Structure formats: C-alpha cells, structure tokens
Amino acid sequence: MKILHTSDWHLGQKFISREREEEHALALEWLAETIIQENIEVLIVAGDVFDIGNPPSSSRALYYNFLKKLWQSDCRHIVVTGGNHDSPQMLDAPKEILSLLNVYLVGKATEDVSEEVIVLKDSEGMIEGLVAAVPFLRDQDLRRAVSGETSNDRIEKIKEGILAHYEEVGKALANFKTAKIPVIVTGHLCVTGLENNAKQENIYLGSLENIRVDQFPEVFDYVALGHIHRPQAIGGMKTVRYSGSLIPLSFSETKDEKSVTLISFKGKEIKKIQEIKTPIFRRLKTIEGSMEYVQERLEKLHHDYQDGLPAWVEVIVESDSIIPNLNGILQDFVKDFNLEILKTRAKTTQFSLNEQGDYQELDELEPIDVFRKKCESAGRPAENIEELMNTFKELEEWMRENEEC
Ligand SMILES: [Mn+2]
Fold first, then answer.
1. What's the gap in Å between 334 CA and the centre of ligand 1?
2. N or C: which end of the chain has fewer CB within 10 A?
3. What's the 394 CA to ligand 1 centre distance in angstroms?
4. Distance between CA atoms of 115 and 265, rounded to whole angstroms?
5. Which residue has the higher pLDDT, 285 or 201?
6. Rounded to whole angstroms, what are the CA distances from 133 to 108, 115, 206, 272?
7. 69 Cα–ligand 1 center, Å
C-alpha cells in the first residue's frame, strides 16, 4: 500500500500582507498530479490545512477542487486532521458529505477516541489498513483547569493528557486484527528525540506539548506528524516523521527543502520511505551583507530566476553609518528585476559608538530579554522575576502554538 504523508499547507496564509494563493494553487496541482502518477492509495494530511480559522472562500475552493481531482484516482482514502491553525468546526462542517467520497475528517479530538480510528477498506470491503487520526490536542480537550494550579502543574497535565490520549487510541485498536495491515497514527504537536539533538533545529525546546519519540504506543507502524515545517525523521526513528510544510512559509524556512513523504508498505512491513521534493514555485530569500554585496546578490537572484513567480526578498544591509532612504534606493535598484523586496532592515555599527557604551538594537534582543530588563529596571525582587519569567515563557508558548507553525 502506498501512503502519502503531508501537512501544514496553511492555505489562506498572508505573508507580509501578500497572498500566497498562486503558490498554493501550483503546489496543490503538483500534489494531485504526484498522487495520480505515483498511484498513491492513501493520503494523510496531518493538520494545518488552513492558516486561519475563517479562511477566504478562494482558499476553501482550492481545497475542495484538490479533493475533487483525486476522485476516481487510485487514491482510495484521504484522511485530514485539524492543526492548531484550523478551526475544528470549519474543517468538520462537510464531514458527512465528504465521507461519501472516502475523505475522512477529524477536526478535533472526539470524546470517544474510537471515532478517531479510520478503518480503510478495499473494494471488497476487507480492512486494508487503520489510521488513528489524532488532531492537534487542545488544552480544553485534554483536561479541566483547576484553580490555583501553577504553570508547571499545567504543563505536566497537558503532557499527561497527550500521552493518555495516544494510549487510549492505541487501545481502541485492540478489536482489530492488526498483524498484517499498516497501522498509522497522526499527530500535530512537537515530538522530540531521545536526546536533544542539535540537528533538530526547528524543534522548540521546552515547548509545552513536547512528547518523546518513544512515547507512542508500539502498535503503530508509522507516525505521521505535522506542526514543524522542516521535513525530518525524529530521533533516528525513520518511522516517526514530520513531512514538513508544502511551501516555505517564512523567511526562516528558505533553506529548507520542501517535500512530501511516500511510505510504501507490503502488508505490515515498510518497504521504503521516500521524500518527494516539492518544486519551489516562489523563492523566499534573505540577503544580508554590505550594500555592495546585497546589490550583487539581488542581481544574481534576478539573473538566476527569470521565469516563474517573482522571488520575495528580505534584505539586511550592514554599514558603518546610517544610509538615508535605504528602502527607496533598493526598491529603485530592483524595479526591473523579477523579484520584490518585502522587508528592508539596516544594521549599523554607528549606534554602538554613541555615549551609551552597551547600546543594543532592539532587533538583536529576544522578547524575553526585553521583559527581563523591564522587570529588573522596575526593581522587582529576584524570585518574583523568575516567576514572572515563567509566566512570560508560557505566554510565548501559547502564542507560538497559536500562530507560528
Ligand atoms: Mn501547526
């Protein structure tokens, strides 16, 4: 059985006020063609189909038209789970009608976990695989808040709740004969390796919803993850993977190669796991250096990518002194190029020479550093500051969970 794993489409994303629709349309067209050409039988989308809870109608049309393209292809089953960006209600709304087309939706955790188990049947009605379609698990799906609990209690309870949910969904498979068929589980969360691996860059260390790679019940042959946008296997386990996002979604992802993951099963055994590279329909680039260097790179970028959608560029210019009208100069420089500068920033050393010896640019500081300095300047006692820092970290986590990936 050939299974394709993808996640984090983020349809409807706005990027520095630009629409991504052209790129998404091209990427979904490519994906549908790939599924048809590779004779994929099962498609799994592990969360964050949409970027926002109430996406524009054009993004919804993209999604439905994509599903329609697979109708009558070899792709017999499509499983879509909700991510932290998706509105569960919105995703689940067409659940009944789409189930007639073998598209199974699980927008949010269900009270009875057995409802998350999708039974894949072949044309003769025989069970050919199982997918435990676990969506992003929200705090309120996992536990009731107890007044007076500390933030650490809360984090521990969320983790316990996540593990309990996976345990339960594993147990719900006990009624099936799983010895000869693929058994897959999905997740939209942060999973870490056994040790903190430097290679695992995109993992948010200390994130609230971290669970370890070895904590999934053994009944699962493959764990299809979403949430982290860089494709990667976790902790040396080839069978626990993030497929990564379909297109680069921020300037920090410009070095990632984007891909979808093809898993070929023979019976229960995984024969091959392959990354199929996604074509880049629009380049996102960060160029940093002196004015001369930046202009050189912009010319090269224009020269190298004449076709296709104009690249989107972030420019950081380093110089000894302030360059007046920097953005104007650069915009003028690229006006006939097949690229657009969306963001310009200056990094000058001038400021460090003024009377405050330890002057730091706000851009160089992390929000938490600024918060600490603020607490210190307000003369808060040290233990009070630590408690406030924890609360701040929690708030940052929450924002990350709800916005970033
Ligand atoms: Mn996500």
1. 34
2. N
3. 17
4. 24
5. 285
6. 10, 9, 25, 22
7. 25
Top-confidence range, 32-41, 207-216, 283-292, 313-322: 32-41
**pLDDT tens for residues 358-380?**
455 565 667 888 888 888 888 87
Q: Give the confidence band of 236 by pLDDT, cuts at 50, 70, 90.
A: confident
- Dist. CA 145 → ligand 1 center (Å): 23
Query: For residue 273, what pLDDT band results from cuts at 50, 70 and 90?
Result: very high
pTM of the predicted model as reported, rounded to 2 decimal places = 0.83
Element (H, E) at 281: none
Q: From ligand 1's centre to the CA of 240, what distance in Å?
A: 17
Looking at domain 284-364, which CATH architecture does it have? Answer: 2-Layer Sandwich (3.30)
Residue 313, SS3?
strand
- The domains of the chain are located at 2-277, 284-364, 367-405
Q: What is the CA radius of gyration of the chain?
A: 24
Q: 84 alpha carbon to ligand 1 midpoint, in Å?
A: 5
Query: 232-236: which pairs have CB atoms within 8 A and are 24 or more residues apart?
Result: 232/200, 232/202, 234/191, 234/192, 234/193, 234/200, 235/192, 235/193, 235/194, 235/195, 235/197, 236/193, 236/194
> How much distance in Å is there from the Cα of 209 to the middle of ligand 1?
12
What was the pLDDT predicted at 402? 59
Distance 254 CA to ligand 1 centre (A): 18
Q: Tokens for 246? A: 């379909």
Cα(10) to ligand 1 centroid in Å equals: 9
Cα 109 to middle of ligand 1, angstroms:
15
Could you read off the pLDDT of 191-233 as tens digits, one per residue?
Answer: 988 655 444 444 444 455 578 888 999 999 999 999 999 999 9
